[in-house]
Design goal:
The protein has 2 domains: about 15-185, HUPs (Rossmann fold), CATH 3.40.50.620; about 185-245. Helices cover about 45% and strands about 20% of the residues. The chain has helices spanning about 20-25, 70-85, 95-115, 130-135, 160-170, 185-220, 220-245; strands at about 15-20, 45, 55-60, 85-95, 120-125, 140-145, 150-155, 160, 175. The protein has a 7-stranded mixed sheet, sandwiched between helices. Strands 7-8 form a two-stranded antiparallel ribbon. A hairpin with a 3-residue loop joins strand 7 (about 150-155) and strand 8. Helix 2 (about 70-85) crosses helix 3 and helix 6 (about 185-220) runs antiparallel to helix 7.
Length: about 250
């Protein structure tokens, strides 16, 4: 493989060009340019005027969505072992309550590749802005690494790739890990469950309201009272079971 497949992006005041094999070998001395089949799906974005000095540390942005963590650890270890680099796994947590889960996840990743001349550690930033999280840890000699399919919110309703966002925000080289898919995060799963619970609950309330109106208008007075009581009990049981089933 002569070059890694990467995309050009246009940035005011700092045009970006696709990273070439020479760019990568300058950042990662020893990068297996000729026999890098395992890196064939990866990408690289480099600023046109950025000095490409040897990397001292990989800063790996780990999204909170589900992914193949074994494959991620292997790819990062291969990159780091090429030049005996330090590795920082960086995570973002929306609140302190979920930060412990993210810390455990990143600690396992760090432990998996902490061997030989590769040292790794984890850092979790509480917040919702990846740019602010990266700004807190980024130093000279760092190479940002992110998953190519990792997308983040952009403006009001848009989405954009994390690699593009990092290149725009920091004007530094960004290595894109290909071949990995990012699934829904626990926060997104919880949001989907909440929306489903509310939607079903409203539908049940409306259905029983219509049934109770029909009973009031069509049933005999003596019978309507019994039927209304039974419908209210049934409504409560169904609502409870529905919310319990959704979790």
């Amino acid at each position: 493989m002569k070059i890694l497949g990467a995309r050009s992006i246009s940035i005011p005041a700092a045009d970006q060009i696709p990273g070439t094999a020479m760019d990568i070998s300058r950042l990662l001395p020893g990068f297996p340019i000729q026999e890098a089949t395992e890196f064939r799906d990866d990408g690289f974005i480099t600023p046109q005027r950025f000095p490409l000095n040897p990397t001292r540390r990989l800063v790996v942005l780990v999204p909170d969505g589900s992914l193949d963590e074994n494959a991620l650890a292997h790819k990062i270890w291969r990159l780091a072992s090429i030049s005996s680099l330090q590795v920082l796994f960086l995570g973002l947590s929306p609140d302190e309550e979920s930060a412990s889960y993210v810390r455990r996840r990143l600690a396992l990743l760090a432990a998996a590749i902490h061997k030989g001349e590769v040292s790794a550690r984890a850092n979790v930033v509480v917040g919702e802005d990846w740019n602010q999280a990266v700004k807190k840890v980024l130093h000279s000699g760092d190479l940002l690494v992110c998953i190519a399919t990792h997308v983040v919110p952009y403006r009001a309703i848009g989405r954009r790739n994390m690699g593009d966002a990092l290149a725009v925000a920091f004007n530094v080289p960004v290595y894109l890990l290909g071949g990995l898919q990012v699934g829904r995060s626990p926060t997104q799963f919880q949001m989907v469950r909440s929306i489903a619970a509310w939607s079903l609950s409203i539908a049940i309330l409306l259905a029983f309201a219509g049934l109770q109106i029909w009973i009031s208008q069509n049933a005999q007075p003596e019978l309507s009272t019994i039927l209304l009581c039974l419908s209210i009990i049934a409504e409560g049981i169904i609502l409870y079971k529905t919310i319990e089933w959704i979790g």
